[in-house]
Amino acid sequence: MANVDLTQVGKNFVKSAETGESVELRSLWQDQPVVLFFLRRFGCQVCRWMASEISKLEPDLTASGVALVGIGPEEVGLKEFKERGFFKGSIYVDEQKKSYKDLGFKRYTALSVVPAALGKKVRDITSKASAEGIQGNFSGDLMQSGGMLIVARGGEKVLLHFIQDSPGDNVPLEDISKSLGIAAKVTSGQRPVCNDDVCTR
């Protein structure tokens, strides 16, 4: 886990998908612990599946006083993402992608994305997402990767910092609960390792 400078990252502004207001990232962990799920794209089929998986934890997180926040790198696909209800937490947009950069979430090239798009794990997870009625599209920035940051209340410390290696990597629900020291009633479904919906058709 790479070192995270919460002071630096916390100064970055993100825009609320609900109000349009821009707030500093650190305001999200000022009064409670927070799980920050950084999506690759709002239209990505696998990102949508991951969002629905993480949302299974929302009741336990809320009961434990933990905020669940999703952050996307652009507004493309946001409207449909919200309307389809893939994510149960608050949603923000990091239009400058500054937090993505500060947290080490890499950008892919067309060449580095393609190999992962052809793997069996990609086919497996997109099949699972499709079976659950979760579809995706090709709109927006296809090359941005994401990850997760879990921060203790008041920014005391980083509880978990996860950087995607393959664009479909994610954190098992059990690891999220464990990092927060809470008991969760749900467990992860199949772990996705897709690289994008470039791989979904």
UniProtKB/TrEMBL annotation:
SUPFAM superfamilies assigned: Thioredoxin-like (SSF52833)
One GO cellular component, as annotated: cytosol
Keywords of the record: Cytoplasm, Fatty acid biosynthesis, Fatty acid metabolism, Lipid biosynthesis, Lipid metabolism, NADP, Oxidoreductase, Prostaglandin biosynthesis, Prostaglandin metabolism
Annotated EC: 1.11.1.20
GO molecular function, one term: prostaglandin F synthase activity
InterPro entries on file: PXL2A/B/C (IPR032801), Thioredoxin-like_sf (IPR036249)
Pfam families: AhpC-TSA_2
GO BP field: prostaglandin biosynthetic process
Protein localization: Cytoplasm, Cytosol
Similarity remark: Belongs to the peroxiredoxin-like PRXL2 family. Prostamide/prostaglandin F synthase subfamily.
Role played: Catalyzes the reduction of prostaglandin-ethanolamide H(2) (prostamide H(2)) to prostamide F(2alpha) with NADPH as proton donor. Also able to reduce prostaglandin H(2) to prostaglandin F(2alpha).
Name of the protein: Prostamide/prostaglandin F synthase
Classification of source organism: Eukaryota, Metazoa, Chordata, Craniata, Vertebrata
